[in-house]
Amino acid sequence: MKHLKAYLAITLAAGMIACKSDKKTEEATETETAKIEVQGHRGDRGNFPENTIPAFLSAVKKGADVLELDVVISKDGKVVVSHEPFMSSVYVTTPKGDSITKENERSYNLHLMMYDSIKKFDTGSKGNKNFPEQQKMNTYKPLLSEMIDTVESYIKANNLKPVRYNIEIKSDAKEYGNSQPQPSDFVDMVMQVVNEKGIAERINIQSFDPTPLNILRKKYPQITIAFLTGEPGIDKNLSQLDFVPEIYSPHYNLVNKAFTDSIKGKNMRLIPWTVNNPEDIDRMIELKVNGIITDYPERVLNKL
């Protein structure tokens, strides 16, 4: 009997230790996946018109950690949330409801239009053929200031966790002074809104163009910077910058184990774009990237 009691005690203790060990393993796995930041690309582009208030609010409701967006500058110096510095023929219609042709879209240069005129164009009723699940609705390109105010008010009213903002400066050296201001002015205009809204500690600024990023680091060294690229060659890409950015954002097809190790070895965070396919999402999670930019926030969130 004594031996039986001793055996049972040892077995019970071993079971408890195993349970604790399993629990720790589960917690460690949860902690690892929880570290992956989910960024709603242009809000929630897979389901709502891109870069619009409804898209950003949808991403917030779903639990995205970061709202990824693009900005351009209007003729009257307003910071406008838009991926293109013109009215895209893919998803924009005129104030009269007419379609815009591919050949004519660049004639609607946002940098030569007052914001009051820009706001009259409908960016949601036409839908987007590349995203058939996207809800159609009459909406518009908002100001960065309006977008921030609306999101912050919604979060406060619903007692939700604060979000971060990943703001892309849409800049191209060939377009300086044409469809955009000079890079230094562009950076100042964006930072003026950021500072007025008091969110500098909850943003990062990204761009494919190294020039505004180099300017940003010199003028606003406290701001987190992400370098966007679709090109291979990490060292070659980084040589365009005068500094090492906090975040490296490549196209997801470039990312593998060696790539991940190289980026983390340079003390940068790795946040690839734009990951929509479930298999690709799984691969990014397995590679333990720091964040995932996606048109479908729910697809990533459901896997974490």
From TrEMBL:
Q: Name one process (GO BP) from the record.
A: lipid metabolic process
SUPFAM superfamilies in the record: PLC-like phosphodiesterases
**Transmembrane residues, as ranges?**
none
Q: Name one GO molecular function term.
A: phosphoric diester hydrolase activity
List the InterPro entries.
Answer: GP_PDE_dom (IPR030395), PLC-like_Pdiesterase_TIM-brl (IPR017946)
Pfam families reported in the protein's UniProt record:
GDPD
Residues in domain GP-PDE? 36-304
In Swiss-Prot or TrEMBL terms, this protein is called Glycerophosphodiester phosphodiesterase
Q: Tell me where the signal peptide lies.
A: none
**What's the source species for this entry?**
Flavobacterium alkalisoli
